[in-house]
Amino acid sequence: MANNPEASQSSSSITEKVYDGPDPIVSVPAANPLGSSTVPAELTEQDPQDNNTLCHAALDNTPAEVGHAADYDNRLDQEEPYGWVVVAAAFCVQAMTIGTVNGYGVYQDRYIKHEYSNSTTFQLAWVGTLNVVGMDLVGPFTGQFADYYGYRLSTFIGALIMGAALVATSFSTQVWQLYLFQGLGYGIGGSLAFFPSIALPSQWFNKRRGFATGITVAGGGVGGLIMSPLSTALFNSIGYQWTVRVTALIHLVVLIPVAYLFRSRIESGRGRKLRKKLEDADRELKIATNNNTSNLHSDEKTDESSERGLEVQPLEKEPPRQKLLDFSVLKDRKFFVLVCIGFFTTMGYFNPYYYLPTYVRNRGISTETGALLVGLLNGASAIGRVSMGIASDHIGDINTLFISTLLSSLSVLLIWMFAGSSVAVIAIFCFVYGFFSGSFIAVLPTVAAHLCGIERLASVTGIVYFGVAAGTLVGSPAGGAILDVSQGLNYRPLQIWVGLVMGVGAILSIVLKFWVNPSIKGRV
Questions:
Q1: Displacement of CA 376 from its chain's centroid (Å)
Q2: Angle, nearest 10°, between helix axes 121-137 and 82-102?
Q3: Of 13, 226, 325, 363, which residue is 20 to 30 A from 419 by alpha carbon distance?
Q4: TM segments (predicted)?
């Protein structure tokens, strides 16, 4: 083939690398799917004032598709009614996954008294920790999987894995088996369903994104409100093993139909790849006459097809292969601070959920009352997620993040530390802590969307929750170790630990706010 051909351009098409010979030949039009510009999208400069530039640069590994982006932006402003179906489906996924995780305290209390009474609190705390870690630590992988293969398929596979993990848990007899099945196995399956559910509503809502996300993540609180008392009742009626099996069945009955309700407004990576192949295969070959092409390039013949008047050229540059795991987005200091906020806040976040049942039992309060208090904690979390989601639409998601982390910390230090054995004060703590800690979970995805956009929000959110997993991996076992020092009798050191680490999350939220908008009263 000719190495340095020149090109001529008309208003109708661009002709490349045609054979300079006496006969009519076949030529290939240049790759310009928009038809309105001859400048490749990947060569255009980005606005230096765009706050999302680095996040997009790190996560977008394909050339820009300007036409499709424009179509997407137009659709984004139209909050279609089906978006509420997506929110309802995502709510159910959250109720099953996060609701079950938040209700682990009931299981831990059961294990300590019955099936695993010879194990320490520290050992059993690792089951709940690995559950959360399994869900969040693989988030960057499962987020990429969902973005590439589609949210519906990811949720369906996740439901099957969660159901299988719970059935395996019911046959477990050793703590390490709980680690493997109820911990990691359930967590990985939950991750495949959780990240699509947390990311998808943002595709359907713009002005009411915080409200929609708040309703979605409220499912975790409602699920915990239902699952904690339900599990306790089932333990007493049908026993531990069948309780876990019934829970597995509930997961399958709810999640498999819900998966089919998921509909994405952004083309999946696999769909985009297939579409490109079809477009390339369907490109029209245009015939240029000798008069139009005789002076375009030299007479050099480079292969047999040239001698026949036909040259085969690649239509466009092949996009680089998408990385399986890409942490380069952490080079953005704002995004890095967001990950740190997730890390420090969740070091304390799950401790009240896990240790409240043993706290109330050690103070002479019945197990049934303890389960109801955990239910109140989850119910308040559901209310807080919706309420603060609405607030974030008005005062900004980063401002909401600061309020939620600060008041969660203060509720531990100022209410729980002085609750003693008063059921009323413990109930007040459960409501206040549940309300504001739940809103922290609600605004994490919206802050990620604020910083990095929503086109690959499942992948971005997966990286944020990688930090959440690391915080959980440290925080909950540390809480168990602190309790073991006093044989579960002195909760004051645990309460101080939880309040302080969540306070660090509040301080970092202020740092993020001023990096994004230095104005004290600014909505951000």
A1: 26
A2: 160
A3: 226
A4: 82-104, 124-141, 153-172, 178-199, 211-230, 242-262, 335-355, 370-388, 400-419, 425-451, 463-482, 494-516
C-alpha angle with apex 373: 369 to 379, nearest 5 degrees? 140
Cα 303 to Cα 2, 24, 312, 414: the distances in Å are: 9, 18, 10, 82
Burial of 33 (0-12, 13-18, 19+ CB in 10 A): middle
Where do the structural domains in the chain lie, given as residue ranges? 79-267+323-516
Best-predicted range by mean pLDDT (14-23, 324-333, 406-415, 443-452)? 406-415
- Using a 10 angstrom Cβ sphere, with 0-12 exposed, 13-18 middle and 19 or more buried, the burial of residue 303 is exposed
**26 in helix, strand or coil?**
strand
Distance CA 495, CA 486 (A): 13
What does the angle CA 468 – CA 355 – CA 490 come to, to the nearest 5 degrees? 120
12, two tokens = 């109708």
DSSP string, 26-73: EEEE---TTSS--S-GGGSPPPTT-TTHHHHHHH--S---HHHHHHHH
**pLDDT tens sequence across 501-521:** 999 999 999 999 999 888 777
- CA nearest 324: which of 154, 142, 482? 142
10 Å CB burial of residue 338 (0-12, 13-18, 19+) is buried
Q: Confirm if 408 and 351 have CB atoms less than 8 A apart.
A: no
Which range has the worst mean pLDDT, 5-9, 83-87, 114-118, 279-283? 5-9
Q: Which amino acid appears at position 496 of this protein? A: I
Coil, strand, or helix at residue 320? coil
CATH architecture of the region 79-267+323-516: Up-down Bundle (1.20)
Look up residue 231 and give its two tokens.
Answer: 């599990």
DSSP state of 116: T
This prediction has a pTM of: 0.64
- What is the SS3 assignment for 190? helix
CA distances from 489 to 115, 353, 475, 484 (A): 22, 17, 19, 9
Closest CA to 356 of 304, 312, 398, 412: 412
Q: Within 10 Å of residue 232's Cβ, how many Cβ atoms?
A: 24
The sign one gets for the Cα dihedral 228, 233, 239, 243 is: negative
**In the prediction, which pLDDT does 280 show?**
62
Give 7's DSSP letter: -
